[in-house]
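Hello again, I could really use a second opinion on something today. For a while now I've been wondering how a particular protein folds. Please have a think about how the structure follows from the sequence. Here's the protein in full, and shout if anything looks odd to you:

***
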Amino acid sequence: MSLVTYLAEHRLWLLRTPATSYALRLDADDRPRHVYWGPPLTAEQAATVPGPVCRDGSSFQTEGYGELEGPGFGAPSLLLRYADGGAGVEWRHLGHEIDGGHLAVRFADRHHPLEITLHYRVREDTDVIERWTELRHTGDGEPIRLERSDSASWTLPVLPGVRVSHVVGGWSSESQLKREPLPYGETVLTNRRGTTGHQANPWLMLDAGTAGEEHGEVWSAALAWSGSWQITVQRPPSGPVALTGGFGHDGLSWRLAPGETWTTPVFAGLYGASGFGGISRAWHAYTLRHVLPHPQELRPVVYNSWEATGFDVDLDGQVRLAEQAAALGAELFVLDDGWFGARASDRAGLGDWQVNLDRFPGGLDKLIAAVHGHGMRFGLWVEPEMVNPDSDLYRRNPDWVLHMPHRTRTTLRNQLVLNFARPDVAAWAHDWLDRLVTDHEIDFLKWDFNRAFTEAGHPGHDDPDRLWIDHVRAVYAIIDRLRADHPHLRIESCAGGGGRADLGILARTDEVWTSDNTDAVDRIGIQHGYGQLYPSRTMAAWVTDSPNPLTGRLVPLRFRFHVAMAGVLGLGGNLPEWTPDELAEAAELVARYKEIRPVVQHGELYRLGDTDGPVSAVQYVLDDQIVVLAYRVSARFGHPAEDLRLAGLDPSSRYRDAATGAVHHGAVLTFHGLPLDLPGGDHASTLIHLIREP
């Protein structure tokens, strides 16, 4: 099967994936027009699909989307202003190139010195279609002003009803899934804070209102970008729904200089007919195969010192924690905030990345040696993009932060944002990070980002809004360079929890700190929303103390572990305060997690039950192994746990419970259910590991 076919007589391109097709064609005026996105089509079939037309002949209604000029009235994907006051594009087709699954369609404006290349990429092992755009100024005169430069626009078939799925939230309440009817008009999902954001995430799913977890058509799109972003969905009173998305947000503009090429991030799309669960599994497989740097690895069990010690860190205390963490089975020990400069609280020291020798006499090497001596890897918390005003760095370089002339510099969490769009600031950050990893045996960095952009100016720069883009690109470049120079180094993305989780940062890091909220009950919902798009292999989850330090909720240790086992298990409690019985149970549960870890981190995810129902569960399938984690938050009199119907099994096979030896038939597990042996009372949970018999 050819991945990309060009039908010259129809001026149509057909892109094919294993289970879908996408088609576009040029109209009489050379404008690119969406034709089809859905189940597979042959080239002959695609040639017969009509393009969008004005249905009622009205001069006020067309179905053009993603345009400014001509008869298109949808949300614009591209807003341009020229030096002569003109705007928009009059398309002139220049040609195209096909390289395997990569299609590049080239255009020029009929009058202005602008070339536009629309990029599409499809692969043989995924239904995800990657799209991005390049703009090039081909003249030698004035710059072209870019007021909006989205990566791509997507158009759905006409549907009888439309529902949108996306996530909302805030700090410590990230990834709250919402499924609701799409309003008529324009719906804008955005984040203006300079990073991906806790309040929303740059993906969405659309269906006709009839899709379920394992049935029905779903169209989805996700932006691979870790800064501010905007996705606009338009639902007209009649006709198809369309969406457009890209980096930046409303109110920003950039200058495209003569000879310059401007490349957008990928805005990928995915269609499937197996419900929301099928779409999630397809995104997970794509991320594992084509996004993550080391997808084949199993992520280690981490112990992080933050909730045990806060800023009160020293050599002896961390060595004792490392010994206890190793005894529980931890494989990576991470020293969190407080190891550097005058960092006794969040009020001072950020930016002064020298080891505090009062706390760690002789430096970090003694602690690192102790950690390695216990058979664990060593990791360190860093926040390279931030500075406290009370720091030597800020006193030396007050102009290094984001700021505007004659405006107060707002501090959030007692800190300011360094302007990584400045090459000297980005170079400084790379240099100290490189020295840190080079001079010490550091295996892992927890890269944090604890405040949003404010006063986001770049005084003296002729294109100050570029900082919103160039800052993120500088972060990418620093991480890429660190990883190239230190192949052993692994990195976690953190931004006050899950504020920087997206396909762009996952292409450069190994996991995401999902939320600062470690309350197991809250985490069920947070992990449910996160897993709609991102795989368990990237979802860091800790077991911490009870009562929970954030919510005060009392939850049994077993329940806390079972919730955290649904992702990359970590430990974050104050271990010296745990009882001998708790430590013994924790060691047993860590060992159990290591047995099922390959299935959880690399298996296919099935969501069972409703997170708001009596019992919710997640199931993972990898080859002949099945893992089920089931939770009952609140016991209800007269409502015992019903048998849990599993998914993704072979009805003709038999499955043995690895713990009890009981054998179950696949047909019974699928169509009747698995009996759940849940403890009594609230916060009850269980783990079942099934193995298919030969």
